[in-house]
Amino acid sequence: MEYVERIEIKDNVIVNHIIGERPKVEKEGVTYIYASNIQANIGDDVRMYEDVITGEKKSLKKLIDENLIPIPEGKKLNEAGTDFEDMSEAEKVEAGLRVLKDDEKNEGDYIVKKTKQELFNDGLITKEQYNLYIDELREADYRREADPLGMQVLRGDIEKNVWLEKIAEIKARYPKVN
Hints:
three-stranded antiparallel β-sheet, single chain, rod-shaped, 5 helices, two-stranded antiparallel sheet
């Protein structure tokens, strides 16, 4: 009596791993692979293997390319092709998994808030709201840059035109819309 090793495959799944006599009649709908020292596992999808005899499995990238494994939503294959990693928010937008809000934009790999200028240009804020924002920027720079010069003018340390030029520079830096 001769004993042989075999695996039985039904619907692409390894259903049996047997060492024993060769069956007199092979079952219909079952594929038989005869070999020695088979390393594949019962329950595995045979399509996952490069070689069912040695047990060498296909790479994750190849399994995805062959549509045997889907990429989970919000994930992507890492550079090495060995695992999944989270997509960036920008990649989710590009893939249609996330929609940008009106006040957001895609900038490289990141989702960032639009500037007040962009919000105004897109009609999302009024001229008055934009100019109020400009007033706030100017006020901060006046305090930081112009006010110390104003004090020096009062003490007589510098000419008044230096202070006025700084105010004009700040106004030019942050222009209002008309």
